[in-house]
Each structure stands twice: as C-alpha cells, then as structure tokens.
Amino acid sequence: MQVKDIFVSAPGKAILHGEHAVVHGKVALAVSLNLRAYLRLKVTTTGKVCINLPNIDTSQCWDLSELRRLIHNFHGKRDEAQRLDAELVKRLREFVGATNGNLDTCSMATLSFLYIYLSLFGSGELPSLTVTVWSELPTGAGLGSSAAYSVCLAAALLCTSGVIPAPLKEWDHTARWCQEDLELINSWAFQGEMIIHGNPSGVDNAVGTWGGMLRFLAGKIIPLSRVPLLRILLTNTKVPRSTKVLVARVKDKINKFPSIMTPVLDSVDAISCTCEKVLSEMTCEPITGEHYNILEELIDINQHHLNVMGVGHPALDMLCRVTLAKGLHSKLTGAGGGGCGITLLRPETDSLVVQGTVQDLRDCGFDCWETSIGGPGVQQHSPLSVKEEILEILNRD
Q: Which residues form the GHMP kinase C-terminal domain (predicted)?
C-alpha cells in the first residue's frame, strides 16, 4: 500500500465548437471546465469499504468479506486497463441491485467505484478504505460530471494500490502525474465511463485527465499542448433534453437537405480549426483585443449554425439575448435543445458587468457560474490547496 490518504480533483468539460458536426466526421474542440470533482481517499482499519457521495445524498459501506465473494479466479493486470470484464460487471449489478434497467445515478456511481476497486485490488489483499467525492458540476447537464468522478477514482485507487506513484512532494500545493501515468488513469477512467454510459466517446474522461483543450476528429482524440485560460460564464437553462433525439434531428435535416446542410457542417469544421489556430497564437504572442474579437465572432456564427441544424431552443435564444445586451457573446455547448451555454468574458470585462449578467440570467430561472476553461486536468492536492468549504465536506467521516 503506497498511499494512506490522498486528495485529487478533475475538471468537467464543455464543447467549445463542433458539437453535432463531430458526429458527421468534422472537428470538435472540447475544453476543460474549471468546475471540478474533488475526492478524498483514506485507508482505514475498519474492515469496511465505504463511499460517500453527498451531492446525491448517498453513503454506502460493505464488509470486506462481502466484497471478497465477488472475486472469482481473478487474473487482471493492474498496470493496464483490460477490456471491460463483463462477468464482474454482471455480478456487481446484482450485488448493488442495478439489474433490470435500474440505472439511477447512485447505482451507476457505486458500480463504477466497486468495479475499479475490485479490478485493482482483486488479485491480493483487499484494503479497507473510505472514499468521499464532492462535485461542483451539476449531473446530467452534459458537462462531464461522471467522467470527472471516474478520473478521480482511477487516479486515487491507482495511487493507493501502488501501480502509480503519488506526484505530490511535501512542499507542493498541487501536482500532476507524468504522461505515462496519465494514460493509465485515462484508460481506467474510461472503464468507469463504460459502466456508466455503455458506449462513451472517451472525450469526457480524456478532458478530465489532460485538461486544457482536445481536438476530436473521427474517434481520434488529440490533446493540444498549450491553450490560454479563458474566463467564461457557464449557464444551465435547466431545460431537459435528449441527446439521442437531437442527434437524430440533425441527421434527418442533412438527409432532407444535403446540398444546404453539408456546407453548414463544413463551416462549423472551419470554425473549430480557426478557433484552434487563434488559441494557439494567444499562447505564443501578446494577447490582443483582436484575438477576442475573432473568438466572439466565431461564437456568434456557430450559434447561428446550430440553430440552422435545429438544435436551438427559446431558453438558449434568451441566454444569447440577455448576454448580448451586456456586450457579451454566447453559444450553446453540447447537445443543445436546452441544456447549457457558455459566454466568453474578456480580461477587461468589468466585474459589475459580470455580476449584473449573472443576476439577469438567474432572474430567467437559469443556474449560472463564473468559471474558466482550459485549466489543468487531474491533479493531486495538499489539503491546503483545496477550497475550505470543500475540504470540510471531504473531511466528514
């Protein structure tokens, strides 16, 4: 056992440009969202494994003897994530009562945790430990909350099992893992995502692992080496939507009007590529107002294209109108049809303007946060570097 007590966090994700077009072979840009999931793992001597998820009012404990019975002829390799062990998943589903389609958030989070725990420790002595996770991310909003959770679990359990070292030195506040260790964290997090979502793209867990910005094209995920940190408002319209229905709607429109819709998809592709070019310029030369002008125009053009595709919504139009009245530019992020939107803030945007905009959006019945995109991926924390109110939650037994 390498680590007895560890704090880790991982970011959520937003799609900056390319949602829907990515389904049709175009580039999408996914960025880390600096609303994070925080996890504390503490090794105990209670003979129990406990998980606390206060966001969803869930707290569960199991005796090690119960968990040992779930492992038959275990032969997994811990230093590489194998294909999902369907037999273990089936046993765990029965164990947590998640059979016959009972797939609520609590069951899925529990399944994912037990799967990674048993896969990493199943070939030896099972340790007793307590895991507590607190997330700043709303669930079910398309912001990668389950992936941030899976990435935190993978990092903490891999460290505790001794497969990867803990990167934090005693004088550090935060620390990141090396590339090789991040790849292992990412592959185990993807297993957790497969349990929760069935057939995920891998984008959400990759953003949670590497942070910054990723380019996603035809199933290939490429982390971009450096991106500037951009201030944004993130708004949740709280209008529920079905990603599957919206994806089908876009496909129908492309089939119905191919000569009209194909150029729209090509234009969205060009927006993603232009945005990537501007952001990489911003990391290697002085940032100017012109950079922000271009970013704002790209946001406006892409939002119009998404409306043309049929994935807009009156609540998103309202978001764009309210923010434009303050001179700010917004677009939907993710599936559309409601859900979330992002608003770019310039470095010089006055804090009173920001506060006024947030209040106006809340008056519309929306949730709104000021945050940033492009920040770090999964990291280990010293307790001092965790926000006080989050630390208090993680330290509750």
A: 294-350
